[in-house]
Amino acid sequence: MNIAFVFPGQGAQSPGMMAGFEDIPAVRGTFEEASDILKQDVWALVAAGARADDLNQTLNTQPVMLTAGMAVYRAWRAIGGDAPSLLAGHSLGEYTALVAAGALEFDVALPLVRYRAQCMQTAVAEGKGAMAAVLGLDDDTVRAACAQAAEGEVVDAVNFNSPGQVVIAGEKQAVERAMAVAREKGAKRVVWLPVSVPSHCALMRPAAAALANYLQTVTLTPPTIPVLHNADVAAYTEASAIKDALVRQLYNPVRWVETLRAMANQEITHVAECGPGKVLTGLNKRIDAAIETLSLMDTVALKAAKSILTPK
Questions:
Q1: Which residues are catalytic?
Q2: Beta 155-162 vs 3-7: how paired, if at all?
């Protein structure tokens, strides 16, 4: 048995998302630690009955999702779960993976992702950017639709999430044109995504430049577990290479299909989604049905996964 853990990113959050973990002290303890670091009640953002508008603000969502992912990972280790042999994260989740790998300290990562969120939010004026999901077309056809629709503006294929599911991002009018072209090319469905930041497209280059400057002040150490990066599906041990991958991630596509296939090539047999929800679990099943996928979305699922993933 060869295990990989993956961490979700922005979009998997919802009020009450940690409700199934009340009986594991490591979870609430991680949120208390995050609250002390950020000088903000992070648990209040995810509690049942919390305002979705507050949770969905990018400046809140990114540190919340990192905290949630680490809380679940610590809970896994607290119940005696084995460390995985490989890690990855979807977009923001890559930072959680680096913390789990010991490359980035939790108290350093939280201000870092909040700064990342700020850079992304300010890189594109309110209402100028957009993202949409294109379902039912192959990757090259989506790329061609973006190229045809650009007309001098930015619209890129930015998330290759699973076969037949690609997210596009860029300037709003260009995204709208690309959606129309995708429909003409036979897309089964094309839908706007409720986001204010067009992530992973060329419009994020100013954010990437600011992030690169911030990362010069951040200490990174070699990860104890390899982390596959979104931008190039490679793992690095040198701090400079990891920082460069994080910078490039902001304006390059998330290559999730290739990430799962790389795991298969490294003989990964089981992949566990470490965090709230089952977004990545659904994608992973569509990418490679031969890999057993698990979602550690509550205490029941956590304990069930331990019985499967921990040798007797």
A1: 91, 200
A2: unpaired
